Amino acid sequence: MPSSPLKILLVEDDELFRLGLRVRLQQEAGFEIVAEAEDGEIAIEMAQRHPLDIVVLDIGLPGIGGIEACRQIRQQCANLPILILTSHTQKSLITRIIEAGAQGYCLKGAPSETLVLAIRSVAAGASWWDSAATNEIRAAFETNTAAMSGRSLDKADSALTRREQEILALIASGKTNQEIAEMLYIAPGTVRVHVHAILQKLDVRDRTKAAIIAIQNKLIADDLIPQSPDP
Fold this sequence. Notes:
Number of strands: 5
Mean pLDDT: 82
Number of helices: 11
Oligomer: single chain
Strand content: 5-15%
Shape: globular
Distance between the termini: 41 Å
Radius of gyration: 18 Å
Helix content: 40-55%
Order of helices and strands: EHEHEHEHEHHHHHHH
Strand order of the largest sheet: 2-1-3-4-5
């Protein structure tokens, strides 16, 4: 059954690299590059002008830069997922990427098949972090979340229902809303309602931050948290 193509905004200042990305992504069934930008300011304008499913955003942009462009796009288009392209994975950079509201990143040197899978996953509502990044993200947010007031966290803890905790745990394991709906035998629309309620209760703007905060502050019952397999 044919479906609507994923509408992509491609943001990259290196013209040759952007051309290569465009050619490769346009070969992929179900992908449509609807707009391109070479700096952060143009990216923000394009995100407002075009109906999009995802932004693929280089972090090393001229002008305001990729991090600030990501932050402003998320402020203006809160439901528009953003996948960062980067050549570096330092702890400080990963922290800035997640704080800006991106749903994940893909290394520029990764195989094109990895980038395609990352785009599909993030557009579907999942996160895209490698194992090293996941560890860095959790470590980076441990201090920040510990600094949140005990009063607000206690309030969130008491407010999160069992179902909301189940959904948070599945978000933390990288599941999309559709996958969560199938696993819990509920409608995708019901999942979206729960996710909206969770974001409101934890006072965050995206699913990834909500999952990290909930895990680090033990807001999810231990039996619901996905366990890493033993080596």
